[in-house]
Design the sequence.
């Protein structure tokens, strides 16, 4: 099989591993390209690769581990709260089943609390269903140590990991009601849709105005969201395009020129919105077409009277 044929067959899995390791589309693309370049060079050198699938999975994981270690140093200097780069593609049924809820922004944020090796072992075993011996070989340890890595990661995430009990259709219906309430500034409707301990997170990366800290609690989050309505009206032409954001309901935010200025993702459980992620850092939206800059719309994600405490 040619390198181009291998690329077409193996790239989706390779990108999925790299993205869930790094939470960055650009960094994941770089890792995948580097892995396939090494595969091509190895083949051209006359070396036989028994399993290109295993070869690419190993290279991508190890490159991602190295990249994640250096990325964490940069993220310590990041302005404001760091959130993953969003994906707004709707996965196929097979892809959705493969990645389950691990693609959600909330889970990707939780994965940041693991060590790079724990994250790799957990994803390969729990999400991509690699057998323990193969995971051990990929991450460079023995099977017993790999089992301990996965167990520790599982315990760490178990209590905090969201559970999506509602059907996809129910979540989409709730999302439609949510964004309609935001557009109309309907405070009571928003409070009805939000969980008591809902949290709203924003990422502007110091490039555009955004929430400096998470906003917590139903009342405070509802007030922040309701305050967006008059700002949307004054801006004119700003609209929400409902879509799937990292496999969960969300919306792309477009300005009057039809440029993308933000992405909002929702995590929904028990018929309530548990978490809202708002990514407006233009650097994290570059993989979308026609990206704009919030500019004067910055107040949409940094209202003057939001508060950050529990409500």
Sequence:
């Amino acid at each position: 099989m040619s390198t181009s044929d291998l690329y077409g067959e193996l790239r989706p899995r390779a990108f999925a591993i790299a993205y869930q390791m790094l939470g960055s589309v650009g960094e994941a693309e770089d890792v995948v390209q580097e892995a396939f370049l090494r595969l091509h060079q190895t083949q051209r050198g006359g070396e036989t690769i028994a399993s290109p699938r295993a070869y690419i999975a190993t290279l991508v994981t190890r490159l991602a581990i190295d990249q994640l270690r250096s990325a964490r140093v940069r993220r310590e200097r990041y302005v404001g709260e760091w959130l993953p780069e969003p994906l707004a593609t709707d996965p196929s049924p097979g892809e959705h089943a493969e990645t389950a809820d691990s693609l959600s922004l909330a889970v990707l944020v939780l994965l940041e609390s693991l060590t790079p090796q724990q994250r790799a072992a957990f994803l390969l075993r729990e999400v991509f269903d690699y057998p323990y011996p193969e995971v051990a070989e990929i991450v460079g340890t023995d099977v017993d140590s790999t089992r301990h890595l996965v167990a520790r990661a599982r315990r760490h995430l178990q209590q905090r990991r969201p559970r999506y009990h509602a059907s996809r259709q129910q979540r989409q219906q709730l999302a439609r009601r949510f964004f309609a309430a935001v557009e109309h500034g309907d405070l009571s409707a928003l409070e009805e849709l939000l969980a008591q301990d809902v949290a709203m997170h924003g990422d502007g990366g110091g490039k555009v105005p955004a929430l400096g800290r998470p906003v917590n609690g139903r009342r405070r989050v509802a007030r922040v969201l309701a305050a967006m309505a008059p700002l949307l009206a004054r801006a004119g032409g700003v609209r929400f395009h409902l879509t799937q954001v990292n496999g969960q309901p969300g919306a792309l935010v477009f300005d009057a020129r039809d440029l993308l200025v933000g992405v909002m993702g929702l995590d929904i459980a028990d018929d309530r919105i548990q978490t809202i992620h708002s990514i407006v850092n233009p650097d994290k939206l570059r993989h979308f077409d026609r990206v704009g800059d919030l500019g004067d719309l910055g107040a949409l994600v940094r209202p003057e009277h939001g508060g950050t405490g529990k409500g």
Remarks:
- The first strand starts at residue 194 and ends at 203.
